[in-house]
# Entry
Amino acid sequence: MSLKRMVLRDFVIVESLDLELQRGFTVLTGETGAGKSILIDALQIVLGARADTSVVREGAAKADICAEFDVPDHVTPWLEEAGIDAEAAILLRRTVDNQGKSRAWINGVPVTATQLRSLGEQLLDIHGQHAWQSLTRPESVRNLLDAYAGTNPTDTMARWTQWRQAQKALQQARDAQATLQQERDRLQWQIAELEKLAPQRDEWEELDSAHRRLSNANALIEAAQRVLRILEDEDSGALDQLSQAHTALQNQEHVEADFSAMLDVLSSCLAQAGDVAHSLHSYLRRTEVDPERLAELDTRISLWLNLARKYKRPPADLPLLLQEWKQSLQQLDASRDIEALTAKADSSERAYHAAARALSVQRSKAAPRLSSSITKAMHLSLIHI
# Structure
């Protein structure tokens, strides 16, 4: 198959061109700006490439491009399916007007740009001046070899992807494990520090109350003793005064009936004042200044306050904080599953290497045949030239 002829009308800077090509090797030469690239651009457009108004020569109504090809056997089914007669030649034509509207024909039959492009891909390959460099890339060579051998590396590539993903998941877990281990060590250290204190629920309130009582023991004892003196003084004690008042009203109750209600009040006051005195005596018997106990409370409270400041929590929250840390430590211990991820990564690696070895065997068998075929094709091309 070969390109036989090209005809251009009002294309870019070309007003008219009719170019016939012979069989064999053809070279277009010329200085920069002579129009070599314009011919390639025209060929790409007639093969279905995108086109706009810039391809229309200034002052012209439309650009018109035609290209004639031999009919290769492999495109005949495509032409028949498209309802186009397979004649002695394939004539492609495309026009682009100065409004940007494009029309296309194959052997005189109107077609879409997509159809033109589909047929063009089967008729001609256009390679840039640096296209040969792709042959220096291992990936391109492997693709050519796979295409020749009919091998499909998709399964091997999928297994490689699975292996890499499994490795990544394992590495992420290991990295996280290192972080988790650091977090675990930190929690263990903090838990050990709080467990030395062993804070109990409601202990802080009890400590604070006991400390306030002991630190003010002297003042409390003095206050209780003073009240007792007021109540029980032999000469002017409140209890004695109330008792005398009660007796005076009681002696006149038979004369004044209203004194009866007053006596009830005084009786209640005497009873309540007596209860207060009894309670104060009991309080004084069990209350004493205890410097040693106060020092113990000072030390215990100091430990609570130091840890509360260190972890930025109210002292009363330390028991709950210890419980939270223990729960977090249990969760961290339950989150490690490196063994399962390692097994999956190893299994994926074995599957990939097995598929890769099978693919390598197929490629190794096909490579000498491909080399021989390329050499033979190059010799035939030189003979035809």
Observations:
- The mean pLDDT is 83.
